[in-house]
Design goal:
With 112 residues, the chain is α+β, with helices and mostly antiparallel strands. The chain has a five-stranded mixed beta barrel. It starts with 7 loop residues before the first helix and ends with a helix.
């Protein structure tokens, strides 16, 4: 299945009605299970640093679609994607761009 550039998850991100909040709202701090759109600011072999309104986060390589599928291009600086916060106690907070983590977060928030 072709999903195109790594930024495509943003274009197909669920609507505010489905999520119960607007993922485009400004971020001041990360909260576990919060979904936010981010921009990749740096890429390394271990993962990607991201930014949402000046608030930094980190996505481990195994929490990014390209690690699991050869059909998805690797992340690049400037790519935008939809993420979910997994651990807001880490510095920088750990995020994920995997559907399974979105599903878990929505279940924990009481929304599917």
């Amino acid at each position: 299945m072709e999903i195109g550039r790594f930024l495509d998850p943003v274009a197909r991100a669920p609507s505010e009605e489905i999520l119960g909040f607007d993922p485009w709202m400004p971020v001041t701090t990360w909260k576990n299970n919060q979904e936010v759109h981010v921009v990749i600011t740096a890429v390394a072999s271990v993962g990607s640093l991201v930014n949402a309104d000046g608030v930094k986060g980190f996505i481990d390589q195994v929490k990014q679609p390209p690690w699991w599928s050869e059909d998805v291009q690797p992340p690049q600086v400037g790519d935008r994607l939809h993420t979910v916060a997994l651990d807001d106690t880490r510095d920088p907070p750990r995020l994920s761009a995997l559907q399974i983590d979105f599903d878990i977060a929505r279940a924990l928030r009481g929304r599917k």
